[in-house]
UniProtKB/TrEMBL annotation:
Classification via Pfam families: Pyr_redox_2 (PF07992), Pyr_redox_dim (PF02852), Rhodanese (PF00581)
Keywords assigned by UniProt, alphabetized: FAD, Flavoprotein, Oxidoreductase, Redox-active center
Entry's family note: Belongs to the class-III pyridine nucleotide-disulfide oxidoreductase family.
PROSITE patterns: RHODANESE_3
Organism: Pseudodesulfovibrio piezophilus (strain DSM 21447 / JCM 15486 / C1TLV30) (Desulfovibrio piezophilus)
Protein name, UniProt field: FAD-dependent pyridine nucleotide-disulphide oxidoreductase
Metal-binding among keywords: no
Positions of the Rhodanese domain: 507-567
Requisite cofactors: FAD
Length: 569
């Protein structure tokens, strides 16, 4: 029996659900409505159009075979009727119809449905600042925003840009301004790091330093209090600590789910916004589904509701909804929270919980940090990769892995490997013995993921006790107090320059000679061991433990991490 499906929203989830259903029930009717004239576009690609990586804004609205995804395309190719500039104003659940308003003339009418999909997406979080309506102040929502921003830059109207927010969009836009256009770019972030809560301060600082080398300035712990301008155009951003010149301002302070329509219809909505759905993507009304950026789903590690606005998730949920509209029983169990962001020639990526979010969720957890080559050490083209693993102490369960490395596929490949199994509650033993495809051009024989899990095992067993580069920074800052003994375990040639710079504080005994020089190492203060990446210093730690030293600290990541973190040794 044919049915009429109505889909409210036509950016990511809506079109996916509509087209999947239509393929399963070609004889049924699908009507997709949207209050905008722009539909089915790749919003995540907007920063890359601004940067010039994507040459034409129309590419954000086309298929892989270069057909524009407009209403005619959906009618001719997909069999889906699309009504643009049509706003859904009310859902009448009792009579199963949607009240809509024509955005051109204000006329209202009703569209009956058998089943309904709410795919209303999310809206940028407004800061309600004085001056937000000035010319040159933008949110990054759709291709029109991207075109306006890029046109201003290409016309030479932008010499200084200020980005408000150091999350995904903020960092991507900062790169776009600074890298492609050479614009003096500043990022203002109210917290004390980039990508707050998603990565540790150590990884965040490494990425921040790299972006600073690319010409981006950061101001942390600052709140924007006003945006000022002249003759209707922005000229300055005022924080609670300084004033920054600005010809362009991007507000990237996150997004809020568009769930008011659902709430007004009596559907269950989270206290902070977002339609609540079950594993079938159904609302508390069996005839209404929802997903994408307007919905709340389950976090598979914490078990708590979570809002995760990602285009990839919206597309996967859309297929689930399309299947179930046709009588299927497809499930979307939830998310573990996987991400990656490109930052010039590097990237930050992660899955699961950071140490901050793990402890905040009630887990008794630790984290360990490792730096290792992303392929065989003897292969000519190799790069250092930094990974951090978060582990629950008692159960040895892996709660998350985050990393910093090159902008190529090696880092995100490792993250995805862990993401695929996180919902099954893997332990460090599972990761230690995880089978990885191996060939010297692609990985080391003992892959960095295997080594990371082994490090976590050693840390839990108390035989690799250490700090990351941030912990080393704290110890090094107190060097003049003589509280620690800094011992470089590398060969003399590697340590020489540091001894020359810091003759009173930096000491050198190669790891292989530790037993021959024990009398040179004090037992009455902490011994801080350093090597290139933390491997030889770990061996030295085992040796000193064997000889009765009680307070030995291994610097995880070694000099590689210290340099990336920006410690001035």
């Amino acid at each position: 029996m044919s049915q009429h499906i109505v889909v409210i929203g036509s950016v990511a989830l809506g079109p996916k659900a509509a087209c999947r259903f239509k393929r399963l029930e070609p004889g049924s009717t699908v009507t997709m409505i949207d209050q905008s004239s722009l539909i089915s576009y790749g919003g995540c690609g907007i920063p890359y159009y601004v940067s010039g990586d994507v040459s034409d804004a129309r590419e954000l609205c086309t298929t892989s075979f270069h057909m524009v995804r407009d209403p005619q395309f959906f009618k001719d190719v997909k069999g889906v009727d699309v009504q643009i500039l049509t706003k859904a104003t009310r859902i009448d659940r009792e009579n199963k119809r949607v009240e809509v308003e024509n955005m051109n003339n204000g006329e209202k009418s009703f569209i009956d449905y058998d089943q309904l999909v709410i795919a209303t997406g999310a809206s940028p979080r407004k800061l309600n600042l004085p001056g937000e309506d000035l010319k040159g102040v933008s949110y990054v929502c759709n291709p029109d925003d991207a075109t306006r921003i890029r046109d201003g830059i290409s016309k030479g109207e932008v010499g200084n840009a200020v980005i408000v927010g150091a999350g995904f969009i903020g960092l991507e836009m900062a790169e776009a301004f600074a890298d492609m256009w050479g614009v003096e770019t500043s990022v203002v972030e109210i917290t004390d790091q980039i990508m707050p809560r998603l990565v540790s301060p150590a990884l965040a600082t490494m990425a921040q330093k790299h972006m600073e080398e690319g010409g981006v300035n950061f101001y942390f712990g600052e709140k924007v209090v006003a945006i000022e301008g002249e003759d209707g155009k922005v000229t300055r951003v005022v924080t609670d600590k300084r004033t920054l010149d600005a010809d362009s301002v991007i507000i990237a302070a996150g997004v809020i789910p568009n769930s008011d329509l659902a709430k007004e219809a009596g559907l269950e909505v989270h206290d902070r916004g977002g339609v609540i759905v079950d594993e079938f993507m159904r609302t508390n009304d069996a005839a209404i589904y929802s997903g994408g950026d307007c919905a709340i789903v389950k976090h598979l590690i914490t078990g708590q509701p979570v809002f995760l606005p990602l285009g990839s998730m919206a597309n996967r949920q859309g297929r689930v909804i399309g299947t179930n509209l046709a009588g299927g029983d497809a499930r979307f169990d939830g998310v573990v929270g996987s991400f990656v962001v490109k930052l010039f020639e590097s990237s930050l990526a992660g899955t699961g919980l950071s140490l901050e979010t793990a402890t905040g969720a009630g887990f008794d957890a630790i984290s360990v940090l490792l730096i290792q080559m992303d392929r065989a050490h003897f292969y000519p083209s190799k790069e250092l990769m930094t990974l951090e693993m978060v582990v629950e102490k008692e159960t040895r369960r892996v709660l998350g892995v985050q990393g910093y490395g090159s902008a190529k596929d090696a880092l995100v490949g490792r993250i995805n490997s862990v993401a695929a199994i996180l919902k099954n509650k893997p332990t460090i033993d599972d990761i230690s013995n995880m089978e990885m495809a191996y060939s010297p051009p692609f990985a080391a024989a003992m892959d960095i993921l295997n080594s990371l899990a082994n490090l976590a095992d050693n840390a839990l067993n108390g035989i690799n006790r250490g700090v990351g580069p941030d912990g080393f920074q704290e110890l090094w800052d107190k060097r003049e107090q003589g509280a620690c003994f800094f011992l470089d375990c590398r060969e003399e040639a590697d340590a020489a320059e540091y001894i020359k710079r810091n003759p009173d504080y930096w000491h050198n005994i190669p790891q292989g000679q530790i037993y021959q020089h024990l009398e040179e190492i004090p037992k009455d203060k902490p011994v801080v061991l350093v090597c290139n990446t933390g491997a030889r210093s770990y061996e030295a730690q085992v040796m000193l433990d064997d000889r009765g030293f009680k307070d030995v600290i291994n610097v995880q990541g070694g000099m590689a991490a210290i340099k990336k973190y920006g410690v001035d040794v």
